[in-house]
Amino acid sequence: MKYNMKSWLRQVMDSKEKKAFPVLSFPCVSLLGITVKELISDSALQARGMKLIADRTDALASVSFMDLSVEAECFGADIVISDDEVPTVNGRIVNDMDDAEALKIPDVGSGRTQVYINAVAKACEKITDRPVFAGMIGPYSLAARLLDVSEIMMDCYDDPDMVHIVLKKVTAFLIEYAKAYKSIGADGIVIAEPVAGLLSPALEEEFSSPYIKKIVDAVQDDKFIVIYHNCGNNVPMMLDSILSTGSSAYHFGNAVDMDKDIIAKVPSDVLVMGNLDPAGLLCMGTPEMVKAETLGLLEKCAKYPNFVLSSGCDIPPMTPWENISAFFDANKEYWKG
What we know:
Elements: H1 5-14, H2 28-32, H3 36-39, H4 43-56, E1 62-63, H5 70-74, E2 78-80, E3 88-90, H6 97-102, H7 113-126, E4 132-137, H8 139-147, H9 149-158, H10 160-183, E5 188-192, H11 201-207, H12 209-219, E6 225-230, H13 239-243, E7 249-252, H14 258-262, E8 271-276, H15 278-283, H16 287-301, E9 307-311, H17 321-336
């Protein structure tokens, strides 16, 4: 089913009983009885996993796998893959201006991107009772994986022109990647830009938000929306810049106080989601802890019609399903009152 996503957003905010929208995909490995390594290279398994989660939960929407190594791998980055963890990027491939200028923009569909595109296409056929979102890395966070997360911070001061060259190239690629998801029937994308949350507000305003806005302007319309995610602790200081991207909704991590630092400062007609700790609470906690923290967050934030309960980031693969169920049960209990 193809949704009018602007109408969907309004319906979500107008609803008196709000469903949760966690970033929940990788824990399907335990339902499928497979490893993360097997999952990330098989579109049929990914689609089946998304469908199993949709059948098991009443999540507001389905979201694909937030594997933030996929795009960097396309550019030539070395990837570390394991059975139980989401893949990571090893080392840097851009060291100087010559490397930046020589960096080639890969074709969409190269590397594992086609696996993920195909997975979302298959998921859209299987999941018809809620919107389906694709996951994608943000431009600064992708550039950081090519330049090295720690090195790019210094490069922003010492060689900003080089950083901008890389950002222009990765943004061009991400626009085409987002268009590919749009063309196969996804209802939107969740852009993860976590590394930008480590920047100063001035640097974020120069090196992240303008490039996010280019992606938003290129693909967002009534039938396809962008959800912006940032789990950095500097988000409150850069909130105005983040909102200037024009994304349809915003998703923030547990490093911030959602009530005091975020939602009270966001326009009431802009959807905001977050922000329970995905690792320390949802993965490592007990069902009782999950229930208590979930109800506590709702007590603080559900008074805002534009708030939707979520995890603060991607829920780890090995998260117990007892904890995930406690999260959904607590949300339902709160709204049933």
